[in-house]
Amino acid sequence: MSFLPISNSNSNGNSDSCTGPPSDNVGNALQAAISAFSSLVSLSSSGPSCGPDAATAATAASANSPPSSWSTMPPPSSPAGLASFSLTHVQYERADVLGRPLALASLAPIFLVVAYTTLAVSSRDLATLWMFAGQLANEGLNAVIKVWIGQPRPTAFLGRGHGMPSSHAQFMWFFAVYLGLYTAYRLQFKYGLLWKPLIVAGLTTFAAVVSYSRVHLFYHTAEQVVAGSLLGSLTGAGWFVAVDRLLFPLSERVRLADGPLGSLLLLRDTRAVGNLLRAQRDWALSAGHQSRKGSKGSHGSKPKTE
User: Fold this and answer.
1) Nearest by Cα to 239 from 143, 160, 131
2) How confident is the model at residue 286 (pLDDT cuts 50, 70, 90)?
3) What pTM, to 2 d.p., does this model score?
4) Long-range CB contacts (< 8 A, 24+ apart) of 144-150?
5) How far out from the chain centre does Cα 180 lie?
6) How far apart are CA 215 and CA 43, in angstroms?
7) Contact, 266 vs 258, CB < 8 A?
8) Which of 126-135, 171-180, 182-191 bottoms out in mean pLDDT, i.e. has the lowest?
9) Which of 119, 126, 104 is nearest to 255 (CA)?
10) Per-residue pLDDT averaged across 125-144, rounded?
């Protein structure tokens, strides 16, 4: 049995662990074996101590060693070479009680994009598709205006790119205004006088909290957030009018939902349904009743005899 690292004695008689192999003569080999045994005892009691040169050599060997994962890149040697995915990276003060909840609130646009995509793929409803298209156009407009104005953020190391206007505020107020107008003028509820104001108030509060989070976390100034909020509100209202007065009539004229393209992509226009959730529930209940009735009929019928 052999133990690593093997150590031998230097010319002064002191034990020097982490040096090269012993010489070929028997005396040095015996002395190296004794030194190795003493090093083993010292390692088991107090741990290895190889000096700064050995630590440097170990670090260099670790950096040059092949990665243990599937990656073809070597492992990072320091945090300086690492980059952060800033789209979901939000920083806040440790001592701030509101820091964590407001940081989560500032991720709302990411969650909404996921919700948009899920609804667009699963429902194929024109109302959702037109709203999602307007939301993406709103983001493109924000990017152009930011470059045009070129105003920096209040904190240089928080956020990337320019700060005027706030894209979070513009995103959220477009969402709140458009969906609020669609709720007020298009959706139908059994208790509409109660539910519609509550939904609009909830959307407004949601957008206001996300907008405030950008100022509280020092990613934007108050002016940048106000500018983004106003621009998002105007864009949301304008897009609602454009969809209601132009795009939906154009969709009917070209038979977008019930034409060949709509049949291929399974598009649908649910504006006339009113309360889509209730209509889908009633359809599911009716289909379930018919299925159970047909199942009972098939089991209760007697087989014909020839």
Assistant:
1) 131
2) confident
3) 0.66
4) 145/231
5) 25
6) 55
7) no
8) 182-191
9) 126
10) 91
